[in-house]
Specification:
The protein is 35% helix and 11% strand. By secondary structure, the chain is of the alpha+beta class. It has one domain. Strands 1-2 form a two-stranded antiparallel ribbon. The mean pLDDT is 82.
Length: 84
């Protein structure tokens, strides 16, 4: 999801991945970063400690870049049934 949005909006994406134990250290808490899993757009924490869907991340990116908000995708029954 994130690499696709990075290409769509021509933005730099930084993914940080560490073992869970490293996120629970005093040194990590001193950085004032969100608890993993998390998504940040700019300085805004979009979600912390849970999963997020692509639409929410895309909305946060558009807000940050002052772009028009994305249109939510129709998630009807037939759309799910006949997904390519």
């Amino acid at each position: 999801m994130i690499p696709v949005l990075g290409q769509k909006y021509e933005i730099n994406v930084l993914v940080t991945s560490k073992p869970n134990a490293e996120y629970m250290t005093d040194e990590y808490f001193e950085l004032d970063l969100p608890v993993a899993p998390a998504v940040m757009v700019g300085d805004e924490i979009v979600v912390e400690g849970s999963d997020i869907d692509q639409f929410e991340v895309e909305t946060a990116i558009c807000k940050q870049l002052n772009l028009p908000m994305p249109v939510p995708e129709n998630k009807g029954f037939f759309k799910k049934l006949f997904r390519p």
